[in-house]
Every structure is written in structure tokens, then in C-alpha cells.
């Protein structure tokens, strides 16, 4: 096998040590020294889009010294806890980074976020810039409360072409083909799948895709609608059973429940040839470009849609993931902070430089009219693949932990963790989750 660079292996060792030795924790960048208490605050995530957000705000602050923005960054897992607590206490940031769905609705119901319809009516070109299906994730009961701020992020199946060549295999197109690969990779001493189970939310990508492939998007819609015993749908039970079959077959890397996504150790397993595949979001490609550029540049990373399930009612062209992340504005921000925030949303967000930087990072912005830029990208294969998935999908389902209410989402991740480690049965999962319906 080709040896990776020393830089990559060193980074990998650090990532693995962090993942296996520490629980995920938050981190933040230094506050902008030019900002003061009257400046709007912006909280965002470390990782794939961090440099783009940071550069955008730094450019904005240089060009608008009297309307600066104070920006901080946090690791994913830590952020989700911190931001809910802060918003509930009336101490949240002016710009709230989110995913739309049930979490956004909980903020709306509590009066924590600002309505944006008047702002959009005064600036109709802003709404027109977005792909409509993505824009709709910021609309609650007919009113807009959030705007997309980055890229479309369907969940895909990444694979290491080199290890596939080693065993003479092709990426799976069906669930049966996926299961048949498991013993082949195990026999070769390679984990079939990397998984950051400690963070819990990566487990969800498996459940949401399998339920959709088996039963179609209507199954989760019934859960969202709070229909009685919706979690007991046969598609949910079958999906959970298939997950436990995959675990029992040795489908995931040993110790997966101790690996944290924030440390990047799941991706590291893929690009150091220790795992053959990984089911993860579109943002991972950006992380791979940063952490293992030679893995990307050499063309060793492959990507395909999540496999179909034979006999399933769901369309194999459906995707799950995040149509995009969103900016909401805090209702507790001062009038001065809101004024600056509105100006940034109008002139700073998805400026020409912002959009091109996102494409250069290997991401697909959630905006219209970028086909020519994608075709000219160094990452043409991936960005056009993602753009096609999102544009052609009959259903693009938001990540369930964000689509559901916070209480339901937390309960779902906790119970799904118990499924993956074999502590409860699919029927027990359904019973536990049915008790959360309507909460």
C-alpha cells in the first residue's frame, strides 16, 4: 500500500488519541478585538466551514469598522448544549447557528428568534438567491425565521478506493451487497465501516437512511406528525434490526462507541486505510481536504449514494442529511445589533467571495446559478455529485435530531446508542420513543 505522509499520520495519531481518550468538548476562537458589547455576536462550529465563516466576518469587519461582528467557534457536540442553555437564559448570540426543523420551531415557540419576512420583503433578491427547497427549512408555519448560511450536506457513503482494489470489490449498490462486503474486509484486517459512536448523532445517519429506503419518507413524517405508535412502524423495526445485524457481523471498527466525531478520528480511519467505508455528511469531504489532502488529490476517496434496500418502498434517489445550516437572529439582540446583522445577511452572506470560497473548499453552496463554477472546480466530481443528489432527490429529509423537538431528538439519540451497543431491542426502542410523541 502507498504510505501516507508523515504530516497526515501525525495528525491522525493526534485525532485518534483525542477521540479515544477524551469526551468531545467545546472550543472557541478568540473574540474579535475590534468588536465591543454593542456588536452582534456570532456563534458557529469549528470544522469544515470555519475558515469561510471566519474570513467572511474578518472581511466584513475590515470594510465596516463601525458595524463589526464578534465571532466565536465551538465544537459540534459542545455547541448544541451551550447554545440551547444560553438561548433559554436570554443570553444567546445575535446570530444563532442552527439546522432548522424542530429545534428552530422550539425557539420560535418560545419567542427567542426574530421574524425575517419584513426584511426579505424589503430585499427580495435575498430569497431569490436560494434554492427553494433549502430555503424552506428556515420557514415555520409560513413565516421565515432563518436563512441558509453554507452548503447542501446530503449524507453519502464514502469509500477508500485503494482498499477496495486490495480485495477486488466494488462499492455496494444494495444492502445485501453491503453486508457481503463485511466479512471480506474483516478477513483482510480492515474495518468495513468507521463510526464515531461516542457522539451518537453519526449513528442516526444509518437509521434515517434505512427507514427511508425500507418505508419511504412517509414513515418519518408520521413520527413528526405525532401519530400514535408511529415509532412502531414495521420500517423502523426492520431498520433497527438491520443495524444490529450489521453490528453483530462486525460491520464497524472495534471500539466505535468510544470514537468522537469532533476529533475527526472516524475520517482518519478511512484515509489511513484502517476502514474501508464511512456513512457521513457532505461536509466530511471538506474535512478530508484539510486533514488528508493527498488522499483527496490522489483520487483515492470515492463516494456513492446510500445503498438501496431490496423490496423497500423508498426511492433510492431520496437523500437524508442537512439541506444547509442556517442563521437565525436572536429576538433579544439590541436594535443596533439587529441592524448590523441585517446588513451582513444582505451584503456579506453569499457574496461573490463567500460563494467561491465555499466551492473552493469542496462544498456546494445552497444557492442558484452556480453550475459553471461547480464545473470549473478542482473538486468537480464531488461537488457535481452532491449538487445532482440534492437537485434530483424526490425527498431531502432533514437530520432527525434537528427535525424533531429537542426532547424527542435527545431521547432518540440516547436510545439509538443503546441499539448500536446491543443493550435494547428494536421493539424496546420503539416503545421508548412512542412515549415521547407529542413532547
TrEMBL record:
Keywords annotated in UniProt: Signal
Pfam families assigned to the protein according to its UniProt record, in alphabetical order: SBP_bac_1
Xref: Gene3D superfamilies: Periplasmic binding protein-like II
InterPro entries xrefs: Bact_solute-bd_prot1 (IPR050490), SBP (IPR006059)
Protein name: Sugar ABC transporter substrate-binding protein
Range of residues in the leader sequence: 1-33
Amino acid at each position: 500500500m502507498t504510505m501516507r505522509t508523515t504530516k497526515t499520520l501525525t495528525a491522525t495519531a493526534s485525532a485518534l488519541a483525542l477521540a479515544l481518550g477524551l469526551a468531545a468538548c467545546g472550543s472557541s476562537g478568540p473574540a474579535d478585538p475590534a468588536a465591543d458589547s454593542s456588536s452582534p455576536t456570532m456563534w458557529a462550529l469549528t470544522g469544515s466551514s470555519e475558515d469561510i465563516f471566519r474570513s467572511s466576518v474578518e472581511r466584513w469587519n475590515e470594510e465596516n469598522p463601525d458595524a463589526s461582528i464578534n465571532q466565536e467557534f465551538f465544537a459540534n457536540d459542545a455547541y448544541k448544549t451551550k447554545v440551547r442553555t444560553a438561548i433559554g437564559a436570554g443570553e444567546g448570540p445575535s446570530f444563532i447557528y442552527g439546522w432548522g426543523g424542530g429545534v428552530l420551531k422550539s425557539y420560535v415557540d418560545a419567542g427567542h428568534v426574530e421574524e425575517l419576512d419584513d426584511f426579505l420583503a424589503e430585499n427580495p433578491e435575498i430569497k431569490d438567491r436560494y434554492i427553494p427547497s433549502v430555503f424552506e427549512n428556515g420557514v415555520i408555519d409560513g413565516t421565515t425565521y432563518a436563512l441558509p448560511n453554507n452548503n447542501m450536506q446530503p449524507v453519502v457513503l464514502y469509500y477508500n478506493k485503494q482498499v477496495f482494489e486490495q480485495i477486488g470489490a466494488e462499492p455496494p449498490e444494495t444492502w445485501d451487497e453491503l453486508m457481503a462486503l463485511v466479512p471480506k474486509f474483516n478477513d483482510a484486517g480492515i474495518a468495513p465501516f468507521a463510526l464515531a459512536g461516542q457522539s451518537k448523532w453519526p449513528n442516526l445517519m444509518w437509521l434515517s437512511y434505512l427507514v427511508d429506503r425500507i418505508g419511504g419518507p412517509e414513515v418519518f413524517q408520521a413520527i413528526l406528525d405525532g401519530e400514535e405508535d408511529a415509532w412502531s412502524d414495521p420500517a423502523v423495526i426492520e431498520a433497527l434490526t438491520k443495524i444490529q445485524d450489521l453490528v453483530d457481523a462486525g460491520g464497524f471498527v472495534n471500539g466505535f462507541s468510544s470514537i468522537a466525531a469532533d476529533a475527526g478520528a472516524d475520517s482518519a480511519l478511512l484515509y489511513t486505510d484502517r476502514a474501508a467505508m464511512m456513512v457521513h455528511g457532505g461536509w466530511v469531504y471538506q474535512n478530508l481536504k484539510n486533514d488528508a489532502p493527498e488522499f483527496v488529490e490522489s483520487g483515492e476517496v470515492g463516494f456513492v449514494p446510500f445503498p438501496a434496500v431490496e423490496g423497500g418502498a423508498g426511492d433510492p434517489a431520496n437523500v437524508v442529511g442537512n439541506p444547509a445550516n442556517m442563521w437565525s437572529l436572536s429576538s433579544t439582540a439590541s436594535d443596533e445589533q439587529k441592524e448590523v446583522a441585517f446588513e451582513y445577511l444582505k451584503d456579506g452572506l453569499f457574496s461573490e467571495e463567500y460563494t467561491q470560497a465555499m466551492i473552493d473548499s469542496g462544498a456546494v453552496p445552497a444557492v442558484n446559478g452556480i453550475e459553471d463554477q461547480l464545473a470549473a472546480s478542482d473538486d468537480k466530481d464531488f461537488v457535481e455529485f452532491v449538487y445532482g443528489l440534492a437537485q434530483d432527490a424526490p425527498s431531502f429529509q432533514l437530520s432527525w435530531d434537528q427535525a424533531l423537538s429537542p426532547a424527542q431528538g435527545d431521547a432518540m439519540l440516547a436510545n439509538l446508542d443503546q441499539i448500536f451497543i446491543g443493550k435494547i431491542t428494536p421493539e424496546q426502542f420503539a416503545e421508548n420513543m412512542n412515549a415521547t410523541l407529542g413532547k
